[in-house]
Structures are given as C-alpha cells and as structure tokens.
Write a structure and sequence with these properties.
An 11-stranded antiparallel beta sheet has the order 1-11-10-9-8-7-6-5-4-3-2. It contains 14 helices and 11 strands. The protein has one domain. Helix 2 packs across helix 13 and helix 6 packs across helix 14. A hairpin with a 2-residue loop joins strand 7 and strand 8. It is of the alpha+beta class. The N and C termini lie far apart (about 90 Å).
Length: about 425
C-alpha cells in the first residue's frame, strides 16, 4: 500500500545558527590571552576591564631612514662643537620620538629647552672635575666625595622627574609633577652610605688579608645588588608615577613600593642565572685568546652585550608591572604584554648589530625596539575625552639643571 503524506504537514524546522559565544568560542577581543610575563603581566580582571572599555590605537610612526638622518646630523654637530651641541641633540631627538608616538590619532609633544639642559650639564661637568681634582690631591677622600654626592641626590632626582613630565604634552594639555625630595631621601642616603663604605674599604687599605678582602667585597656587592638597589629602585619608580598628573587628571599607580620591591625579587631568577653563566663562559673563552689587546676587547664586548640584555630585561619587567597598575583619573587604562625574555633577546641582537656596524645601526635598532614595545601595549578609555578634568596647566620648565646633573652622573631613575 503506497505511503500517503499529508500535504499540510510542515517540513522539520531548520536549526537556528548559534550566536557568537553560544558555541563555546570566544572572539579575539574577548579572549583572555596568556600573559607574556606571568609574574608582572595583567591579571584576568584587568584584561576584562580593558575589554569593557574602548580601545585606543597606539602607534609609532617613525622610520629608520628619517631617524638615521637626524641621529647622524646630531652626532656630527656634537663632534664639531666638542659636545656642546649634545643638549640641542637631546631635544631634537626627544621631539622626534614624541611627535611620532600617536595615541588615538594624536601625537605627543616635547617642549624641553636645550639652553637649560646645557646649563645643567656644564654645572655637572664642573662638579665632576672638582671631585676628580680632590681625589687626585687626597686619594683617601674618595669615600667622602661619594657620600657628599648622595646628599643632594633626592633633590636632583625629584626635580629631574618634574622636568621630564613638565616638558611633555598631549592634546595640548601638559603633564605636571609634584616633587617631594623628602619621600625618597632615606633610600638614597642609605644607598650612598653603603656605596661610600664599599669605596672606603677598597681604597683605604684597611683589609690587608686577601681572603678577608674578597669576603667583605663580595658581601657588600650582594647587599648592594640584591638589597639596596631593588629597594631604591622601587621607591623611585613609585614616586615617579604616583605624583604625576595630566592637566587636572591624576595619574594613579595602584600598587606600593613594597609590592614593586617583592616583584623585583620574585621574577627573573632564571634569567639572571643564565646571564651569569653566559658571562662566565664568554670570559673563559676570551681568556684563551693570546693577544692581550684582542682579549680585552672581547671581554669588554661580552660585558657590554650581556649588560644590554640585563638592562632590557629588568626595565621591561618593571615597565610591565607599572603599566598594569597604572591609570589616569580611573578612566584611561593601560595593559602591557611585553615579554622580558624577548626584550632581552631583541636588545642583544640589536646590540650585536650596533657593534658590528660601528654604531651606524643604532638608529635602526632604536626604531625597531620602539615599534615592538608599542605593539605590546594596549590603552583603553572608559567613557570619552570630554569627561576628563583637563583645564590646561603650565607645563613648560624654565630650568633643567637637575635633569642635566642626573644624566651626567648617569643616575638610575627607576625605569
């Protein structure tokens, strides 16, 4: 008997396609990626806060060709003027880098004055020459000069921070900074006392026993390296960002110096062990070279190369931690996914290229590293720009003496 089908029976309904997220998949923006730096990277809560806000574009538009022309011109003028043009070179390079960093389509602006920087550098050079003359006249007074040099360090560093912030503008609104030398005086004075003790024991001849001398110097080096230096750096890093503002919008650093200190202790042990191991291997290989001049050259190159890698690793690790705890007026949020190990490898490779090219590839290396760093940082905005309390504030600094002095003495400013 043939099968009879009712013509009014409707066909089975077509299954509804699942909406995004119903099939278990997650969009690329809503996904929670594994942080490149598990210790100092963003937490899942911070990532979700960024996903809920409007992401702002952050770009670096500089090119190697343009930056090389600027860099080469500045180097030639510094050589022709016996270094006097270095202040103008610093301002020109800073203006180029600021102009080519774009946030949400708007560039930054650097307004430092080269004449003020030059005055600071001349004063710093005079201080160095006087110190060298006193050391030559009284060799045993080196420790006292080191101790005296650290006495004004809190004032110099805090005003250097102020100069760096106040010469920077964004959307025609200046940054500001409230220096507070009292807040960081004891960390710096403790560092100065420890360093002067190290210098005193080294040049006073008090330790005649070679074994005791090695033991004391090793102990002081450990105290300076894993105790005093992280303590001072954590205090400077917190002070540098917690007292800054953009217009009337406060820059908030939602962490403490203690947390920064323990961050520096927790992470990076494997990397530092690798650096020490590589340093020993390279020094051993260099010792096999019979020519003294070539041996010294190889040892210096190995020291500089590993030093560049260590600095890149440490600064990237600290910058990750700061950016992931930083916001402006609780509206502008930052998230950094930079990998410190990759930063060290990249800096090492660029350092090798710079040495093999006699420094000619340094501009290319700077541009390449700047592009990589910008690509790893996200900036999000909760709300819109009109919600910021941004009446323009005076941001131009008329004096950069502290900046010039701090750069001349090569003081670690907490980055």
């Amino acid at each position: 008997m043939p099968y009879w089908k009712n013509p009014f029976d409707a066909p089975p309904p077509i299954a509804r396609a699942k909406l995004p997220g119903e099939d278990g998949s997650v969009s690329e923006r809503d996904a929670t990626p594994e942080p490149a730096d598990p210790v100092n990277g963003p937490t899942p809560e911070q990532i979700q806060a960024h996903r809920a806000a409007t992401r702002l574009s952050l770009q670096f538009t500089g090119t190697s060709r343009e930056f090389f022309r600027l860099w080469a011109t500045c180097q030639a003028l510094k050589f022709a003027t016996l270094g006097i043009y270095s202040a103008w070179a610093k301002v020109r390079i800073a203006r180029y880098l600021a102009r080519h960093h774009l946030l949400d389509g708007a560039s930054f602006e650097y307004r430092g004055r080269p004449s003020a920087i030059l005055r600071g550098r001349l004063l710093a050079t005079a201080i160095v020459l006087v110190g060298a003359a006193l050391t030559w006249w009284q060799p045993g007074s080196s420790w006292l000069l080191v101790l005296l040099a650290f006495l004004p360090a809190p004032w110099i560093i805090t005003h250097s921070f102020a100069f760096k912030w106040r010469t920077l503008r964004y959307r025609n609104v200046g940054f500001s900074f409230q220096p507070n030398a009292r807040a960081i005086r004891w960390p710096l004075w403790i560092a100065g006392a420890t360093t002067s003790l190290f210098v005193y024991l080294q040049f006073s001849g008090r330790l005649d026993n070679e074994g005791a001398s090695v033991m004391v110097f090793s102990l002081l080096s450990i105290v300076l390296g894993i105790g005093v230096w992280p303590y001072v750096t954590s205090q400077l890093l917190w002070h540098r960002f917690s007292n800054a503002s953009w217009g009337n919008a406060k820059v908030n650093l939602t962490t403490t110096p203690r947390a920064i200190f323990w961050m520096m202790w927790r992470s990076g042990k494997a990397f530092m062990f690798l650096m020490v191991l590589l340093f020993g291997v390279l020094m051993g290989l260099a010792a096999l070279i019979p020519q003294p001049d070539l041996r010294s050259l190889m040892q210096t190159a190995a020291y500089l190369l590993l030093g560049v890698c260590a600095v890149a690793f440490g600064r990237t690790r600290r910058l990750n931690f700061v950016l992931n705890h930083l916001n402006v007026n609780d509206q502008m949020l930052f998230m950094s996914q930079m990998d410190p190990n990759k930063a060290a490898r990249l800096a090492g490779g660029l350092g090798v290229a710079g040495m093999l090219s006699a420094g000619l590839l340094i501009p290319w290396a700077n541009v390449k590293f700047a592009r990589w760093r910008v690509a790893q940082i996200e900036v999000s905005l909760a709300g819109d720009w009109t919600s910021f309390p941004l009446p323009p504030l005076p941001s131009e600094s008329q004096s950069a003496i502290a900046e010039g002095i701090s750069e001349q003495f090569d003081i670690e400013l907490g980055w």
